[in-house]
Amino acid sequence: MKLLTHNLLSSHVRGVGPRGFPLRLQATEVRISPVEFNPDFVARMIPKVEWAALLEAADTVPKEPIQGYEHDERFLRKMHHVLLEVDVLEGTLQCPESGRLFPISRGIPNMLLSDEETET
Amino acid sequence: MAAVPAGRRSGPAAGARFFCTAGRGLEPFLIREVQPRQAGTWVEYISGKVFFTTCSDLNMLKKLKSAERLFLLIKKQLPFNVSLSKGKIFNEMQRLTNDDPESWLNAISIWKNLLELDAKKVKLSQKNANPLKRKVGENDIIAKKLKTAQMQEIQESKECQMEKQIEEETPEQGSFTTKRDKSQELQNDVAEAVDTHNQNDLTFRVSCRCSGAIAKTFTAQEVGRVIGIALMKQFGWKADLRNPNLEIFIHLSDIYSVVGIPVFRVPLASRAYIKTAGLRSTIAWAMASLAEIKAGAVVLDPMCGLGTILLEAAKEWPDVYYVGADVSDSQLLGACDNLKAAGLKDKIELLKVSVIELPLPPESVDVIISDIPFGKKFKLGKDIKHIIQEMERVLRVGGTIVLLLSKDHHRRLKGCEESSVPLNSKGSRTDKPGSTECLNPEEKAAVPEPASSSFAASNQECLDRMPPFGSLVPVECYRVSLGKTDALIYKYKKSHSPGQ
């Protein structure tokens, strides 16, 4: 699971709503795998990123996107590394409101809820 | 009509004539693919085949994604007159080979040239590639000089033992399905073609298909034999049913008599980069082609199964963030395998989540493409309406949804259990009570129909009868064949936030 994905996921435990974000990430096994750098792609992803959530998940991130980031290769490369090259293979995601833990196994987060937990 | 002979090594200068078979319903997609490449050269659709002329080499033609198979055209003519005696018709068949032997020899030499040229290009690009190779099953460094997608395909298919599971065939397909490595096939094709410098040494096999009135009088084997014997007499070739240099494909129908040479042994529809296909790759690609995928988009398949749709999309539109989701461990495992085998592990993320409870914020996804499971194997415990509601929630305004729906899904979404509304378009059948089918109009006699009108009619009907779903407005509809059954591709756009 890449950090870009973590950034997109929110908790959907019953009654939690917007407070279910961001999911707290605990990684027990991480792999750094090189990914071909595409500055255009990274630049397009930046506006979609919830920066506070990203800061919580990764500590080597600048506090906010810098002015003119679209053309700043160093910044883009840093973001590329953080968002796309860090792969969480094993760990957990925790709903900040309910405390519910969702496991990550083989890089795939399991966010299936049991019948009691679902809202409908 | 003869195919135009190839000029120099650089490729057929004046353009060679080809045709592609396509699954029923996919012809508009194939025409769209073929047309821009040819920029004004002849494209014609007749009853499951798209005929066209092009100067392109195999590099371009290999990339046709909605075609089943690609053939070089040797002959296309009016159907045989079935009112003649059997003997007379046999004579007519022999004339296919005897009247114009030049056209046969030309086509064969074009075929050889195309394959040789292509094999050279493949070798050249392999030499240029960075020596760092991709190992299957590990996330190694991707060779930076892998420029073309094709290059990547060849690399990966050489390195991993690919056994493609080929889906059940459409009726249009010939009988050659092999499970061998695609690039290896290409090498084999060239070796076979080049081996026969002296055309008298050629070994061949005839594969024949008869449909319509002529099928009532002749079996495919009979026709194959007659043509085969005529070819042996005309050119001195030897028949080899098991491993011939050359395959001849013949289709006799009520609409035409067509003779061609399959350019590759392996159908275009069988992808080198897909290890285990779920949905037919041609349909998966067609769905992705409707979805308006743009660079930097977030694309979700919330019922991804083995990931076929995402694989097809990621190969064509790489600069996009893809997410696949499924509830089944075995499917996700299969999808993971597929991603690795295709070298797309970095482009597609997987989640184990349920489509009716997506852990995604509202309006966070640009595109959703999904094949909604149906059939006896799947017990869709969840109501299709709930599924689409959840998709609607996570889709941003202006976003696109492309779904593959079974007729059952279709019925439920239209909100009617039974309908005996007769189709009102010209020439279409009226509905039987209880069925809500809108069928393609029956094929009319000999006159080739212009591509757009026959589809526009029935697909437009499907579209008109489908109401909007909340803020999702249906904009396009295509009925496609899945082999044993038909299904519908629906495209929706989200017009506004619900509640506004």
Automatic annotation (TrEMBL), chain A:
<keyword id="KW-0489">Methyltransferase</keyword>
<keyword id="KW-0963">Cytoplasm</keyword>
<comment type="similarity">
    <text>Belongs to the TRM112 family.</text>
</comment>
<dbReference type="GO" id="GO:0030488">
    <property type="term" value="P:tRNA methylation"/>
</dbReference>
<dbReference type="InterPro" id="IPR005651">
    <property type="entry name" value="Trm112-like"/>
</dbReference>
<dbReference type="InterPro" id="IPR039127">
    <property type="entry name" value="Trm112"/>
</dbReference>
<dbReference type="GO" id="GO:0046982">
    <property type="term" value="F:protein heterodimerization activity"/>
</dbReference>
<protein>
    <recommendedName>
        <fullName>Multifunctional methyltransferase subunit TRM112-like protein</fullName>
    </recommendedName>
</protein>
<keyword id="KW-0808">Transferase</keyword>
<dbReference type="GO" id="GO:0005654">
    <property type="term" value="C:nucleoplasm"/>
</dbReference>
<keyword id="KW-0539">Nucleus</keyword>
<dbReference type="GO" id="GO:0070476">
    <property type="term" value="P:rRNA (guanine-N7)-methylation"/>
</dbReference>
<dbReference type="GO" id="GO:0048471">
    <property type="term" value="C:perinuclear region of cytoplasm"/>
</dbReference>
<dbReference type="Pfam" id="PF03966">
    <property type="entry name" value="Trm112p"/>
</dbReference>
<dbReference type="GO" id="GO:0008168">
    <property type="term" value="F:methyltransferase activity"/>
</dbReference>
UniProtKB/TrEMBL annotation, chain B:
<comment type="function">
    <text>Catalytic subunit of the THUMPD2-TRM112 methyltransferase complex, that specifically mediates the S-adenosyl-L-methionine-dependent N(2)-methylation of guanosine nucleotides, most probably at position 72 (m2G72), in the U6snRNA of the major spliceosome. This modification in the U6 snRNA affects the constitutive splicing efficiency of introns that have suboptimal splice sites and can impact final mRNA levels.</text>
</comment>
<keyword id="KW-0539">Nucleus</keyword>
<dbReference type="GO" id="GO:0003723">
    <property type="term" value="F:RNA binding"/>
</dbReference>
<dbReference type="GO" id="GO:0016423">
    <property type="term" value="F:tRNA (guanine) methyltransferase activity"/>
</dbReference>
<keyword id="KW-0489">Methyltransferase</keyword>
<dbReference type="GO" id="GO:0005634">
    <property type="term" value="C:nucleus"/>
</dbReference>
<dbReference type="GO" id="GO:0043527">
    <property type="term" value="C:tRNA methyltransferase complex"/>
</dbReference>
<feature type="region of interest" description="Disordered">
    <location>
        <begin position="416"/>
        <end position="452"/>
    </location>
</feature>
<dbReference type="GO" id="GO:0106346">
    <property type="term" value="F:snRNA methyltransferase activity"/>
</dbReference>
<dbReference type="Pfam" id="PF02926">
    <property type="entry name" value="THUMP"/>
</dbReference>
<dbReference type="InterPro" id="IPR000241">
    <property type="entry name" value="RlmKL-like_Mtase"/>
</dbReference>
<feature type="region of interest" description="Disordered">
    <location>
        <begin position="157"/>
        <end position="182"/>
    </location>
</feature>
<dbReference type="GO" id="GO:0030488">
    <property type="term" value="P:tRNA methylation"/>
</dbReference>
<protein>
    <recommendedName>
        <fullName>U6 snRNA (guanine-N(2))-methyltransferase THUMPD2</fullName>
    </recommendedName>
</protein>
<dbReference type="Pfam" id="PF01170">
    <property type="entry name" value="UPF0020"/>
</dbReference>
<dbReference type="InterPro" id="IPR029063">
    <property type="entry name" value="SAM-dependent_MTases_sf"/>
</dbReference>
<comment type="subunit">
    <text>Part of the heterodimeric THUMPD2-TRM112 methyltransferase complex; this complex forms an active tRNA methyltransferase, where TRMT112 acts as an activator of the catalytic subunit THUMPD2.</text>
</comment>
<keyword id="KW-0808">Transferase</keyword>
<keyword id="KW-0694">RNA-binding</keyword>
<comment type="similarity">
    <text>Belongs to the methyltransferase superfamily.</text>
</comment>
<feature type="domain" description="THUMP">
    <location>
        <begin position="148"/>
        <end position="263"/>
    </location>
</feature>
<feature type="compositionally biased region" description="Basic and acidic residues">
    <location>
        <begin position="157"/>
        <end position="167"/>
    </location>
</feature>
